[in-house]
Design brief:
Elements: H1 2-14, H2 22-31, H3 49-69, H4 73-84, H5 88-96, H6 102-107, H7 111-121, E1 123-124, E2 127-128, H8 131-142, H9 155-169, H10 183-193
Antiparallel strand pairs: 1-2
Length: about 200
């Protein structure tokens, strides 16, 4: 989540386009994956004894989340956001930034939504990466998941939308989006540690 927020922070610092709200964008990116723990598997740590304790703790957290919120990671995130009473605008950005919502994001005039969606597309398991590398990562990790858009005939359509989103944002930044790298985590990390999220 922090890497996605770092990408969004870098973009808003470079922004020269239509009016956007920096705080709501970065806040949405910080919170958007809180429910991800419910989709992770922690039962393959037998070869990594030093990580087993952490895996056991995460499995316990996962079980608690599923019991309290369900097993749909996006719905879990939204339920936690409701409990935290985040602002309606931040909630809406998180609700609508899903990969499957890319067609609506592309046609929207809401550049905050575009930035939140794009920032998420620039982060893989090992941090901030290029959009090309991210799409390669998605193909590799989700191609065997029958529930994923990546395993459907529409996948190339959605990947093309990822590039279109980049093309829509890039003209409004003072530097190319491709210049946002892992260093963004270092540059903005401290600010994100103490970031305050707007609530109702």
């Amino acid at each position: 989540m922090k890497d996605v927020a770092a990408v969004s922070h870098a973009i808003v610092e470079l922004w020269e386009g239509p009016q956007i709200d920096k705080e709501e964008i970065v806040s949405a990116c910080l919170l958007h994956d809180m429910g991800n723990v419910v989709k992770f598997r922690f039962d393959h740590m037998e070869h990594f004894p030093e990580q087993k304790k952490i895996a056991d703790e995460l499995q316990e957290l996962k079980d608690q989340f599923i019991k309290s919120y369900g097993d749909d990671d996006h719905e879990v995130t939204l339920k936690i956001c409701s409990e935290l009473k985040v602002s309606a605008r931040i909630y809406w950005l998180i609700e609508n930034k899903e990969f499957k919502s890319l067609p609506q994001t592309i046609t929207s005039n809401d550049y905050s939504l575009k930035i939140v969606g794009y920032a998420d597309n620039r982060v893989g398991p090992n941090g901030i990466i290029s959009l090309d590398d991210r799409i390669h990562d998605i193909k590799k990790r989700y191609s065997d998941n029958s529930q994923s858009l990546v395993s459907t005939p529409d996948r190339d359509y959605y990947f093309n939308l990822c590039y279109e989103l980049e093309r829509q944002i890039n003209p409004f930044t003072s530097n190319s989006l491709n210049e946002i790298t892992k260093e963004a985590r270092t540059v903005y990390g401290t600010k994100l540690e103490f970031w305050e999220v707007s609530t109702e």
